[in-house]
Amino acid sequence: MPVFHESRKNTIILIFILLFVIIILRLFTLQVITSKYKDLAEDQGLFRKVIYPDRGIIFDRKKNAILQNTNISDLMVTPNKLRGIDTLALCNILNIDTAQFKKRIVELIIKNGRSRPSVFAPLLSTDKMAKLNESLYKFTPAFYLQDRSIRSFPYDAAANVLGYTAEVDTNFLKKHPDEGYVPGDYAGMTGLERSYEKVLMGVRGIEYWKRDNKNRLTERMENGQYDTVATAGQNIYTSIDIELQQLGEKLMKNKLGSIVAIDPRTGGVLAMISAPTYQPNYLTGSERRKHFSELFLNPSLPLLNRTVSATYSPGSTFKTLQALIGLHEGVINTDTKFSCSGAFYGCGGGKPMKCLDLGTFDLRGAITLSDNTYFANVMQRVIDNPKYPNVEIALSSWDNYMYSFGLGHKLGIDIPSEKSGNIPKPETYNKIYGKGRWNFCTFRSVSIGQGEVSVTPLQVANEMAYIANKGWYITPHIVDSIEGGDKFGLLTKYKKKNRPIDIPLEIFNAVHDGMQNVVDNGTGVGAKVKDIVICGKTGTVENYYRGVKQQNHSFFCGFAPRDNPKIAIMCVVENSGGFGGTYAAPIVGLMIEKYLKDSITEKPRKDRIEYLSNLNLFPKNIYKEIRRQDSIRHSKDKKYLIEKGYIKSVKDTVGIEDDQIDNEDLHEDKTNNIPPKKSEKKEIKPSAIIEKKKKGKKRIN
Amino acid sequence: MYQRKPNISAEKDWITIALFFVISIIGMLCIFSVEYKSNDHFIQSLFAFKKNYSKQFIYFLVCIVIAIFIMLMDSKLLTATPNILYLIGIVLMILTFIIGKNVNGSKSWIPLGFMNLQPVETGKIFTALALSKYLSRPEIDFNKSQSQVIASFICFLPIVFSLLQNETGLALVYFAFLLPMYREGFPPVYLIIGASLGVLLVSALLFTTMQLVVVISLLIIAIIYFLKRKFKRHKNLLISLIAIWLLSIFFVGAVVPFLFKNVFQKYQTERIFSMVGRDNPYDEENNKINISKTSKKYPSKEKENYNVKQSKIAIGSGGFWGKGFLKGTQTQGDFVPEQHTDFIFTSLGENFGFVGCTILMLLYLTLLLRIIMIAERQRSTFSRVYAYSVAAIIFFHVAVNICMTIGLAPVIGITLPLMSYGGSSLLTFTILIFILLRLDADRQMVLR
User: Fold this and answer.
1) Contact flag A41-B316 (C-beta cutoff 8 Å)
2) Judging by DSSP bridges, how do beta strands A236-238 and A58-59 pair with one another?
């Protein structure tokens, strides 16, 4: 019995204790000292589920919802539960073939894994929904419907004002880094959706969920005690009159142009029509992407909000402002007379500025009949006024008037992509002609609203509000109030009156007189409405596209009623031909009648609406462009048909040697096809077209 | 005759029994927490015997019955049969090659209908008994190298079979028998050499060969510097130090690469390296620039790392106090693979944190120290050697299993005694412990 080695017991105990101590120390560093593993665990074991609140609803001035939310369903699939499902029946409902079905499932498995539900078909249309709901029991549990809230436009109007939402892209995320957007979110991209995004989006909620090794959500963390609740977006109330808006859109059908109507007392926009427009519901739902590219490629630019983003020469509508300046500068008075013997000869030689009606005019008459010579003389007197030491200072002071009337700078309306327009500055002429080497005659066409001056339709409408109010305006805006308060101070600047220059009331009265005459018995008789005193001014704007003179733009602007004006409005119909009074004036007349009388009941007036609405004034250019695009598409189709053999079968019946013909045909087609493809890339880009157009407009008469 | 009548109530070691119950129950709770989902009706599923925890509960009841059975047994039977049992064990191990069932890539299981038997696992009992039997022979002088060789042969024979069955982990367990042999007089040199080889091996994983050579050389130079006065008296010291230095460098520079390249299989090498978070530097394919192959290999390598990473995340996220029972996100989310068997410790680590882990470690340590105390109070060599064998096996299992979950040892399939799910493992440890208690109850007798 050897007992010599009893002391070795201690060594063994020591080994045991030593190793256990090492393990405990290691556990201590792992569990108590490092926090890395806690973060990692949280990363993979927890999921922050973002709860999207409903976006705010947008109302018009009569509290009709013009932009709200509806629920639409996504069809969800869990791939690993697919066994034993009647795929053919499902494919029939969804209108796809089984190959597509398989392809989609494989894609989803690659993207999201087998055991996580993914979107199989997003935003189902209502008829598919109805069919699916009937037979959904056949496809459970692999398939189920998940509600999603999307935007809907009950009146299907005011698309460019309200704007649309879209999934944010990387560019957007870069521009708005700290606003909590993640890829896959939707955000407002244009219109009110964009400018009131902060208000409409509401506050997102966060739910903490436990997640398992296959990334499935299992249960709420601690029964949701760390969750935050989602708060719905705030509703906003606009000054838009949706019926007026609808009427405007109807009148502007098949025309390019815009209508802007403002309530001069508040600056609130009553209607804002940019034609051609689109049906806003077209850009929600499952086909959004397809529809968007259609609209985007359309050469008539339906996605462009012309009311704020297009600039035009103001034409004769500018004359009212010239009159105000002339009277306030004291270079004329209401009785000053100039006579027109056929043209303005104040600059001696050069191309004379024609006037349409011969004779001698006082201010009132000049406005009524839109006499060019009169206003050329007025502006010449302002610029050559001896109280200004030189022409630069004179032009600067003239510019000052124009700025205070709201031209030449962005007004700051609450929808994005507003353009500033242009009021010619002395620096511009210095640059072109050199200092001291230009005078009034250099820019005489500015006096009648052609040449270097350009304005947006909104600025013209605002200018009418300014004249209607006799010397002040409130920055035009669409949103009147926000439910639950204006937390971001978005509406502050729309509360105060702008009154940059004190111009005496008599001067305005004189201009009002002239403007009333325009409608009563001048160029704008087309705008006349029974029992309403309307002040207005026509404009017939010459313009050029790629250096070629185009049909005139038809302009009309005005306000009504003369005493206590309730609506200031402008209308432009691009390239319509005719005069300002031909198309724009009757449209404005109908709009004013609708707004002030609330409805149009008389038969002849109703007929007029229909007549104007059916009038097609689309410029030829646009049709040409559309035809060209179509022919490119068609030639593509033809190629496709030949490849598929459809065209060949037709040839067979003719009975010519097949092979030869086919080869020739294919060959010919290829050669034909290459050039259009190139040109397509070069020219379809809508932005390019806009630029060229703008260039054209700026050309001097 | 009257005295030898078995008496289970009298001389039982209640502390060990209590520890056995406490650890087993903790184990079942941990298995429960792995499988539990908040909407489960747990009493219903406990008696449906479909879930692992309910099965483990059954195994536990069976083990208690067997434990009582062992306690009622005559301990003479235990001393009389080890050689036969050992032989049967070896035969069973050989049988697996013929009728074995393939489970998780190793053909080491014999299907018995109601459960699968793993002879290498149960072989530990027989080997422990056989070793005890051999060492307790009166004619044996363990100082002689002949008996040392025979004893080693008894212990290490099963290693051959387990290696052939692809069960590296279980093979390593048999090295635990070095401990009882050491206690009985086995020269400590082997233990020291073994331990330092182990340390060198692990450091060879952690560092590159160059780094190691530099560190070892610096260490030896430091030792020579501090011991320079002693060289005058012991001239051999300097020579042996230099020999050690050369040997270590040889081991690190030549033996370890050779082991990884030629002896271990690729999956083992990868597993070993994944534990320290390195790519296998001895894998030639890996070093070749071959995009298609590397991209194909990537997932498997990921998977190797995945176990340890998830295990560390689960334990590490437990913090000081733990997340609370059934509140672990990692455990509930099934992130740790094989969590109910080899990685059961992670469930404890996440739910009960550092405090829970330390308490469990102390429970195991108490059990081990208690067994050593029992061993030392035996009058017969048979019982003492057996007790030390039990302590060594439990120690090896606990240490390696926990080291493996916290990234201190490579992932080799070694269970956590009494905690891991599985009838075979639970039964083995129950039998090991209760045979010891049976022998301890008869400690007044001299058993041969």
Assistant:
1) yes
2) parallel
CB A417 within 8 A of CB A160: no
Contacts of A146 (CB under 8 A, 6+ apart): A73, A74, A76, A119
Q: What is the pLDDT of residue A516?
A: 92
pLDDT at A133: 81
Q: Within 10 A of A638 (CB to CB), how many other CB atoms are there?
A: 16
Is B338 in the same domain as B445? Answer: yes
d(C-alpha A90, C-alpha A93), whole Å = 5
Q: For A367-381, A640-654, B66-80, which range has the lowest pLDDT when averaged over its residues?
A: A640-654
What is the rounded average pLDDT for all residues in chain B?
Answer: 81
- The reply to whether A126 touches chain B by the CB within 8 Å rule is no
Interface contact flag, A23 B332, Cβ < 8 Å: no
Task: Please report which confidence band the pLDDT of residue A672 belongs to, taking 50, 70 and 90 as the band edges.
Answer: very low
User: What's the CA gap between A609 and A113, in Å, rounded?
Assistant: 58
Taking an 8 Å cut-off on Cβ atoms, the answer to whether A41 and B357 are in contact is no
Coil vs helix vs strand at B38: coil
- pLDDT value at residue B286: 47
Two structure tokens written together for B444: 């007044």
ipTM: 0.85
Q: Are residues B265 and B338 in the same domain?
A: no
| Segments making up each domain of chain A, as ranges | 309-607, 620-698
Q: Give the domain-ending residue among B294, B328, B348.
A: B294
CATH class of the domain whose range is A309-607: alpha beta
Gap between the Cα atoms of B203 and B225, Å rounded: 24
Which residue range forms the structural domain that includes residue B118?
A: 89-185
- State both tokens at B246: 């050369």
* pLDDT of amino acid A657: 41
| Residues contacting residue A538 through CB under 8 Å, at least 6 positions apart | A316, A317, A370, A518, A522, A523, A524, A555, A556, A579, A580, A581, A584, A585
What average pLDDT does the segment B232-238 reach?
Answer: 76
Contact B333 A26 (CB under 8 A): no
**What confidence score (pLDDT) does residue B207 get?**
66
By CA distance, what is A217's nearest residue in B? B333
Contacts of B38 (CB under 8 A, 6+ apart): A218, A219, B326
Q: Measured between CB atoms, does A7 come within 8 Å of chain B? A: no
Q: CA A451 to CA A456: how far, in whole Å?
A: 15
Q: Compute how many other C-beta atoms are within 10 angstroms of the C-beta atom of residue B293.
A: 12
Question: Is A223 near chain B, with CB under 8 Å?
Answer: no
Handedness of CA A136, A137, A138, A143 (dihedral sign): positive
Residues of B in contact with A23 (CB under 8 A): 361, 399, 402-403, 406, 408
Q: How far is B302 from chain A (nearest CA, A)?
A: 15
- Report the helix count and the strand count for chain B, using DSSP H and E: 20, 3
B51 and B177 belong to one structural domain: no
pLDDT at B10: 58
How far is residue B53's CA from residue B28's CA, in Å, rounded to a whole number? 6
For the full predicted model, state whether its pTM sits above 0.95: no
Lowest-pLDDT choice from A313-317, A350-354, B128-132: A350-354
Residue A65 predicted with pLDDT over 60: yes
Q: Are A31 and B353 in contact (CB under 8 A)?
A: yes
Q: Are B285 and B293 in contact (CB under 8 A)?
A: yes
Q: Assess if residue B382 is contained within a domain.
A: yes
- A33 close contact with B: CB closer than 8 A: no
Residues of A with CB below 8 A from B402's CB? 23
Question: 3-class SS at A317?
Answer: helix
Mean pLDDT, chain A, as a whole number? 82
CB contact under 8 A, A6 and B376: yes
Q: What percent of chain A has pLDDT over 90?
A: 23
CB contacts of B318 in chain A (<8 Å) are: 31
Contacts A6 to B, Cβ<8 Å: 376
User: Looking at beta carbons, which residues of chain A come within 8 Å of B142?
Assistant: 2
